[in-house]
Amino acid sequence: MTPPCHPEGAIAKRFATEGSLSRQGSNSLGWTAIPQSLRSFRMTREGRPGVLTMTRAGAIALILGCGIGGKSPTPPTSNHYDLGKAATSADVAARDVDVGPDGAGLPAGSGTVVQGTAIYAAQCASCHGERGEGKLPLYPRLIGRDSIAEGFPFGKDARFVKTIGNYWPYATTVFDYVRRAMPQMTPGSLTNDQVYAVTAYLLAANRVIPMTATLDSASLSAVKMPYVDRFVRDDRRGGREVK
Amino acid sequence: MRLLLPGWEGNTSVKWLRRLELGTRPWMTRWETATYTDPLANGTARQFSFEMDARSIITSPAHPETIERGWRSISGLAWSGRGKIARVDVSTDAGKTWQVATLDEPVRSKAHTRFTHMWEWTGNQTIILSRATDETGYVQPTRAELMRVRGAGTQYHFNPIYGWRVMPNGRVFFHGDT
């Protein structure tokens, strides 16, 4: 028979029994308990042990978790470790928010530079500065097209500060990152329209798009960043040459 | 549960793994584009420097140790993202001469390899260094060589020869200017 859970689960269960691990908290071992709603995967023994059951062809999201506490573990069936449950399409959709550099995955909605200016002031400026100048080292500079740092001089001197406008290769990355990770204390709180607006403001303030622009999935996909052509694939292959 | 990607930069071995999403092309995410890319002196930026170039470090002696005169072992770890460590050289005279260190078994691909070298310290101030060579023939460079080929602005994926400065009183301090 197979173990019902990984060792972390056994640790968590012991802590839960002792009343020192909340169901959604972290313990001193750094193990984070996973809420019931996120326990939605299953490990299979078909093929080779530990292979995860795929829930969807193409882009696949798997929610990993491990049951803790409560009733004793269900005896495993012949083909499964009996961990979690299959991810529902709603589970997958809620987390399937990635945006590709070609705009794939961008949602419906739109926002203007003007709208984004107000959202930036309310939601972003307290950390990143009124003009996106950042507060180093914690909060990176977002806005900046200083002539001294134009022309991609970053390899020559580490003191040149990279910004969205003078470095980032893809505009879609701004949308993707803001939507999944910002504002830092309340990620996920902005609507898609607001994320489009903030993205528009950051791109306009970096002189990538006009101050009159409105961004939606089509127009954001069409934005070409100033220095995208400077990015080259890793050509290190070992051997005698140092690169 | 942790993702383990042997040979790749450590931060791709993601801890507390919750989800895996498979795709057919890079997503060009914020960290892998805006941060972990390597700007080069020729005005380009290298993208996805996942594979680790060969590197070694001396773990003993090391700061804040104070060493005694006489015979002792210099030991450390070497690794490469492209295969096995082929040899490690150790210098006890600031890089003027090098001796081949002994590799402890097992020597495995993309795995830490322990090396040792016996050394008699006579009480003089010196610098001890280690230099790894992997099975592709790649030799761990000095800091100056890395800066020369990548530019002075290079920061990430940095694998220069580093070592320790041994003072006449036996105290050991970091030495990174190679």
In short, what is this structure?
The complex is a heterodimer of chains A (243) and B (178). Chain A is mostly helical and 243 residues long. Chain A has seven helices and five strands; from the N terminus they run αββαβααααβαβ.
Separation of termini of chain A? 51 Å
Largest inter-chain interface? A-B, 55 and 51 residues
Spatially, the strands of the biggest sheet of chain B line up as 6-5-9-10-11
Q: How many beta-strand runs of chain A?
A: 5
- Describe the sheet with the most strands of chain A: 2 strands, antiparallel
Tally of individual helices of chain B: 2
Proportion of beta-strand residues of chain B: 25-35%
* Gross geometry of chain A: globular
Query: Could you say what the CATH topology of the domain at 55-175 in chain B is called?
Result: Immunoglobulin-like
Report the CATH superfamily of the largest domain in chain A: Cytochrome c-like domain
| Uncertain residue segments of chain A | 1-70
H and E string of chain A: HEEHEHHHHEHE
Structural class of chain B: mainly beta
Give the radius of gyration of chain A. 23 Å
